[in-house]
Amino acid sequence: MKSPRLLTTASFAALASLLAGSVIAACGSTGDAATGAAESTGKGQSASSAGGGGGASSTSTAGTGGTGGSGGAGGSTTASGSTGGATGSGGATGSGGATGSGGATGSGGGDAGSDVMTCTPVSAPGVLPALDIFIMLDQSGSMSDAVAGGQTKWQAVTSAITTFVQQPNLTGTSVGIQYFGLPAAPPGNCVCATDAQCPSAGDFCFDGMCFNCLAAEDSCVASDYAKPEVEITALPGAASAIVTSLGKHSPTSGTPTSAALQGAVDHATAWEAAHPGHVTVVAFATDGVPNECDDTESDIEAIAAKACAASPSVRTYVLGVQGADDDLTPLNGVAAAGCTEQATLVATSSNVNQTFLATFNKILDDTRVCTIELPAGASAADVDLRFTPAGAAAEDFVNVADQAHCPATGNAWYYDNATAPKELRLCDASCTHVKAAATPAFQVLTGCPTHH
Questions:
Q1: Of 217, 232, 264, which residue constitutes the final position of a domain?
Q2: Residue 50 CB neighbours (<10 A)
Q3: Are 138 and 285 in contact (CB under 8 A)?
């Protein structure tokens, strides 16, 4: 058995130098690193490299023999790329004599090649759209029931509508109206002189008219209700026509809710599509649940939901006059489906006139204050909204997916339609906040990614 061979001091230094060279070769991944050659005096030689990703670290080798050489200073690294240079390594220990001092740490390269860009949006004043309201008013027999103050439901509601349309400062607002139920189209010729002239079997002539025509039920045809008695017309000019129309009607019909609502949203949708820059809403006023046509709650809610999800999007505001024995809570479902949260339900024991007037004014504020047009040509993915109260700092509102995602507090907005947006709508909490501000102003910022 042979004795193990011991390394001499010179051999150990050579091995250390070899290992240091291997480390250098492994580190120089981007730039061509220069490796300092060892000097017999023990002075380390540093090297630096320039490369796309920053220079490789430099290493100094130790001197041999005699007094230990001092370790070479770590090379400072420069970089022209986006990543800083690696840290320089200290010099190796000199062999023989005193121990060499370690090299200084190399300095990292700067981010001279950074490609980070700051997006500067284009700012434009927020434009509030014109508001068009299509009123669908219940004229069923129960609207003749009394309310507090001695009026009937019909008198209280029509008085509120009259006051609303005659208010000053309604420039930019238009109103139209239709009623439900409407009589069904007569089955053929209703004028008669004898029973034989009446088209239906068993019918008879009464006072020059076939009796079945006189006793016909209300129409369940939506298109009958999509024809306004007074077309949507700008105020104040439309006020006199609306008031005159109200005076020609009285509570006599049933409650064909589904057909009336379908006709109302059909007309409102067609009207808004034909009037760019306008927002058209339906104000559906009733005192009862349906008793004619399709009276399934989910079907009626689906009518309102489809109108809100369409492009253009039409919201349905629901106003209900509720007697002591009535349950109008199903109307909340219609309002929620129509993107207006919940119905305004007014007890007959309260001030119906005042509450209905306040609700019509809320409709006005929701659109004239809390709805902003999407600028023409803007990408929906690159829009932000900034609100500046008078004399206060600007506030940036964040975007949420839809009304259902609106926060209970904080400033947020959503698009009227996710796939084909035309409007920026404020969440309820934000709308309330804006209404409380003095002379609020909006800026629509475009050209940079939307903040969510």
A1: 217
A2: 18
A3: yes
Give the percent of the chain with pLDDT over 90: 51
DSSP of 251-296: S-B---HHHHHHHHHHHHHHHHHTSTTEEEEEEEEESS---SS---
Residue 277, judged by CB atoms within 10 A of its CB (0-12, 13-18, 19+), counts as: exposed
Number of domains in the chain: 3
| pLDDT(105) > 60 | no
Is 60 inside any structural domain?
Answer: no
| One domain for residues 379 and 346 | no
**Residue 118 confidence (pLDDT):** 66
**C-alpha 56 chain-centroid distance:** 51
Question: Does residue 246 fall inside a structural domain?
Answer: yes
| Shared domain check, 408 and 333 | no
Give the per-residue pLDDT at 112: 37
Is 114 contained in some domain? no
Contact 301, 333 (CB under 8 A): yes
Regarding whether 232 and 212 lie in a shared domain, the answer is no
C-alpha distance across the termini of the chain, in Å: 78
Q: Is the pLDDT of residue 6 over 80?
A: no
pLDDT of residue 210: 82
Same domain, 283 and 151: yes
Rounded Cα–Cα distance for residues 166 and 52 (Å): 74
Using a cut of 0.70, tell me whether the model's pTM lies above it.
Answer: no
Residues 195 and 331 in one domain: no
Say if residues 94 and 69 touch (Cβ distance below 8 Å). Answer: yes
295: left (phi over 0), alpha (psi -120 to 50) or beta: alpha
Least confident of 144-148, 336-340, 344-348, 438-442: 438-442
What letter represents residue 268's amino acid? A
Neighbouring residues of 274: CB distance < 8 A, sequence distance ≥ 6: none
Q: Give the structural domain span for 320.
A: 130-182+220-368
Does a structural domain hold residue 61?
Answer: no
User: Among 368, 385, 408, which residue terminates a domain?
Assistant: 368
Residue predicted with more confidence, 415 or 127:
415
